[in-house]
Structure formats: structure tokens, C-alpha cells
Design goal:
Belongs to the YggT family. This is YggT family protein. It comes from Paenibacillus lycopersici. It holds the Pfam family CCB3_YggT. The chain has one domain. It is built from 4 helices and no strands. Helix 1 crosses helix 3 and helix 3 crosses helix 4. The longest helix has 22 residues. The protein is globular. The chain is mainly alpha-helical and about 80 residues long.
């Protein structure tokens, strides 16, 4: 398992915890927030919530993370 996959799971866990306010305010929720929010914030600035409620920015962020991770792997493999 690579770092990008671990970070993707962290984003997914953070999104799922956001649906449960009691868990979001727990130690794990706050820790995930500190690790994931800096990455999600730029996406949230450019992608508005649908209907003001549904936030699709984590989905776009996950695609971007996977795209960049695969690109970096391809670049590294060129030099190995």
C-alpha cells in the first residue's frame, strides 16, 4: 500500500465522519481534519456545494490525488 492510498482512505474516513457530528468532534475526527483539510480546502474554494448541501470537492480531490500519484510513479519509473 502506498502513501497516496493511505491518504485516500484518510479522506474517505474524514468524509464519512462528517456525516456523524459526534464522531467528527472526537480525537480521530479532529486528527483527520488537521491532516486532510489543508488538502481539501483549495478544492472547496473552487467547487461550490451542489444545492448548498452536497459537497463533491472530496471526490474531485481523490481523483486529483490518484492522478498526481500515478504521474509521479510514471516519472520515477522513467529514471529507474
Amino acid at each position: 500500500m502506498d502513501l497516496a492510498s493511505i491518504y485516500q482512505y484518510m479522506i474517505i474516513a474524514y468524509v464519512l465522519l462528517s456525516w456523524l457530528p459526534g464522531l467528527r468532534d472526537s480525537f480521530i475526527g479532529e486528527l483527520l481534519g488537521k491532516l486532510v483539510e489543508p488538502y481539501l480546502a483549495p478544492f472547496r474554494r473552487f467547487i461550490p456545494a451542489i444545492g448548498g448541501v452536497i459537497d463533491i470537492s472530496p471526490i474531485v480531490a481523490l481523483f486529483a490525488l490518484r492522478f498526481v500519484a500515478r504521474g509521479l510513479v510514471a516519472i520515477v519509473e522513467m529514471f529507474v
